[in-house]
From TrEMBL:
Database matches in InterPro entries: ACP_syn_III_C, ACP_syn_III_N, Thiolase-like
Swiss-Prot/TrEMBL keywords: Acyltransferase, Transferase
GO MF: 3-oxoacyl-[acyl-carrier-protein] synthase activity
SUPFAM superfamilies xrefs: Thiolase-like
Protein name stated in the entry: Ketoacyl-ACP synthase III
Domain Beta-ketoacyl-[acyl-carrier-protein] synthase III C-terminal residues, every copy: 255-350
UniProt entry tagged with the keyword rRNA-binding: no
GO BP of this protein: fatty acid biosynthetic process; secondary metabolite biosynthetic process
Organism from which the protein derives: Empedobacter falsenii
Pfam families in the cross-refs: ACP_syn_III (PF08545), ACP_syn_III_C (PF08541)
Beta-ketoacyl-[acyl-carrier-protein] synthase III N-terminal domain boundaries: 129-201
Length: 352
């Protein structure tokens, strides 16, 4: 038995934030020293490396669960189902609801419970819980939903990925420019024609890799040292991803009934354009092949890195023909992959 998506939804915040937004920021390095480069140079290098020209921020009156609700409602409409028939709501995020101009995370009750409330679902046996798994959280939620359905514990699951990273960034850290807000969702149920999830794989590296992404103090030493922000060791993450993610993708393909030539698209977490390109190039090199043309759709240029939301948003955009030269047709085999805090990696193969 395989399980497939019957509805996909997204919510892209309306606030467009270009790189010009950061021109007046004062950036420091990890030692608390003001960066020598001017902000125009920093912005130029950011675009060259990550591909990011602009990103989206949630409105001041919105929090992560609001974004997740909008994406969930979109997926339910797309599936044309009664929300009361959903057995599980799995909400992937990392920082809970953080109100504008605060840094305190609110995770009780769970964001999944908040979405269930907003959807007005009365069924008490619709179970709502959160997944904290770094950027791969939405993919992991899909893998868990797949397991629930296969085990006979559910017939229909709603998996949400949403984040408001703009609320947890250090304005004095140039990495702030990478992060964005957004939400995506999908509804999974059993397939009658063996289409859907064909194979999957997850891994956690939690030794020296554990703190490659972490919560740390501002680079501005004059700020309150007890206030924490999202921080990362970019070079270490890049090297880790390039080393581990292609191998995981290959193992997933090799453990399935497909081969590398069957893959129509690779939908990968929108973390960094150069890193994603390097991962896919390394993946194909493991098969002694060049990267096929138009294999990897991207939306990071305009939407930035919204963590768990990047993959479902990207998938919805492809399905809606919103990306030039990227379509998914019936029968296509798509490889999904993500990497993030933990450090966690996951991947699954899906036939449409």
């Amino acid at each position: 038995m395989t399980n497939h998506f019957i509805g996909i939804g997204k919510y892209i915040p309306t606030e467009k934030i270009s790189n010009l937004f950061f021109e007046e920021h004062q950036f420091f390095n990890e030692q608390g020293e003001i960066l020598d480069q001017n902000n125009a140079t920093i912005s130029y290098k950011l675009k060259q490396i990550t591909g990011i020209e602009e990103r989206r921020y949630a409105r001041k009156d919105q929090v992560t669960s609001d974004l997740g609700y909008m994406a969930a409602a979109s997926a339910i409409t797309n599936a044309n189902i009664d929300a009361e028939t959903i057995d599980y709501i799995i909400f992937a995020h990392n920082f809970g609801d953080v109100k504008h101009d605060t840094i305190q995370s609110d995770m009780v009750p769970s964001l999944a419970a908040r979405v269930k409330n907003l959807l007005k679902i009365q069924n008490p046996y619709c179970v709502a819980y959160d997944v904290i798994f770094g950027c791969p959280g939405w993919v992991e939620g899909v893998i868990q939903a797949n397991a629930f359905i296969k085990a006979g514990l559910a017939k229909r699951c709603l998996v949400i990925g949403a984040e408001t990273l703009s609320r947890v960034v250090d304005e004095h850290d140039r990495d702030t420019m990478i992060y964005a807000d957004g939400a995506g969702a999908a509804i999974l149920e059993a397939s009658t024609n063996n289409k859907g999830i064909q194979a999957h794989l997850s891994a956690s590296y939690a030794n020296e890799e554990k703190d490659y992404l972490f919560f740390g103090k501002s680079y501005n030493s004059e700020k309150c040292p007890n206030t924490k922000y999202i921080k990362m060791y970019g070079r270490k993450i890049y090297e880790f991803a390039l080393s581990k993610v292609p191998l995981a993708m290959k193992k997933c393909v090799d453990d399935s009934s497909y081969n590398i030539d069957d893959i129509s698209k690779i939908v990968i977490h929108q973390a960094n354009e150069k890193m994603d390109e390097a991962i896919v190039k390394r993946f194909y090199s493991l098969y002694d092949q060049d990267v096929p043309k138009n294999i990897m759709p991207m939306n990071i240029h305009k939407l930035g890195n919204s963590s768990v939301a990047t993959i479902p948003i990207l998938l919805k955009m492809i399905m809606d023909n919103d990306l030039e030269n990227h379509q998914i047709n019936e029968g296509d085999v798509v490889l999904f992959a993500s990497v993030g805090a933990g450090m966690n990696i996951n991947t699954f193969i899906y036939q449409f």
